[in-house]
Design brief:
single chain; 217 residues; alpha+beta; 7-stranded antiparallel sheet; 4 helices; 27% helix; globular
Length: 217
């Protein structure tokens, strides 16, 4: 049996207390982080519904800037629910003609965000081809089929011309709905905000022209 002096016992007692305090500190930090992360999306469904509903006011106040577009699957002449529509704001107009069809491929520059929150006052960016400022000169492009995108995004694309740059706001019903994304980057019931520039599009079975830095303006 090993014996310790009073001094050694005292020193070990102090070390034990320091160790306990360290554990408590780590536990508190962990809990605080979890509380912050949880609080980021508190009442998320209600907050997103209020945000999307407020766009009706934006349309009334700036009818020349904002437009309401019915989802492509809504039959013509039918007035749908509020969430059967997206809102679009033209940032800049292109000089191309024609619009993509549902079965077409498109080449786009885009940035997708959530609505503003405590940590992300401009909205959390969950997907993007842009690094830094939204610019055709510095951004990457992405190719995709219109038909593989969420319904609100596909709706917008089918109204855009080559060179158009739009901000589109999509209700969760036309986005990732009540499940969100499998990765968790988009929570359930999220309104989606996209800045999108349509670079080019091509019909199914037709090769799209290559895109290079020389084509940037």
């Amino acid at each position: 049996m090993k014996c310790f002096t009073k001094g050694q016992l005292k020193q070990r007692g102090q070390l034990f207390i320091v160790g306990c305090l360290g554990c408590l500190s780590c536990l508190y930090s962990s809990c605080s982080k979890e509380e912050t992360e949880a609080g980021e999306f508190d009442n998320w469904q209600a907050r997103n519904e209020v945000y999307f509903a407020s766009l009706a006011d934006s349309l009334r106040q700036a009818p020349s800037q904002w437009q309401r577009i019915a989802k492509y699957s809504l039959a013509p002449g039918i007035e749908g629910n509020a969430t059967d529509y997206i809102y679009a704001k033209v940032i800049s107009k292109g000089d191309g003609d024609g619009t993509p069809n549902f079965t077409d491929s498109v080449r786009v520059i885009y940035q997708g965000r959530l609505i503003p929150s405590a940590t992300f006052p401009e909205g959390y960016v969950f997907d993007t081809t842009v690094g830094g400022d939204f610019s055709i000169r510095t951004a990457s492009t992405a190719k995709m089929l219109v038909s593989t995108t969420v319904e609100g995004y596909a709706t917008a694309l089918q109204h855009m011309h080559r060179g158009d740059c739009w901000r589109i706001v999509i209700p969760s019903d036309l986005g990732y709905g009540e499940s969100g994304t499998s990765s968790g980057s988009v929570p359930a019931y999220s309104t989606l905000i996209f800045d999108v520039m349509l670079i080019d599009f091509s019909p199914a079975g037709t090769a799209m022209p290559t895109w290079s830095s020389r084509m940037r303006r």
